[in-house]
Amino acid sequence: xxxxxxxxxxxxxxxxxxxxxxxxxxxxxxxxxxxxxxxxxxxxxxxxxxxxxxxxxxxxxxxxxxxxxxxxxxxxxxxxxxxxxxxxxx
Length: 90
Fold this sequence. Notes:
90 residues; alpha+beta; three-stranded antiparallel beta sheet; 42% helix; elongated
């Protein structure tokens, strides 16, 4: 009698928790500057970028991107090119 085994049997599986890029509000960038940089960093639509910028303005911060740590670091670096304040968190 033969026993079939699953191809995943004996392997470990784990879930990688996503990271967030948090955009912080400031008093020196215009909405247009923030929106342009958000589009550049995340590839989101202009409407979505405006929504994120407004949320950061009114709430002090906004999640602007969620994904793997390496991609979040890349997004944060692009936002920081014009000295936007960002924070990464898991």
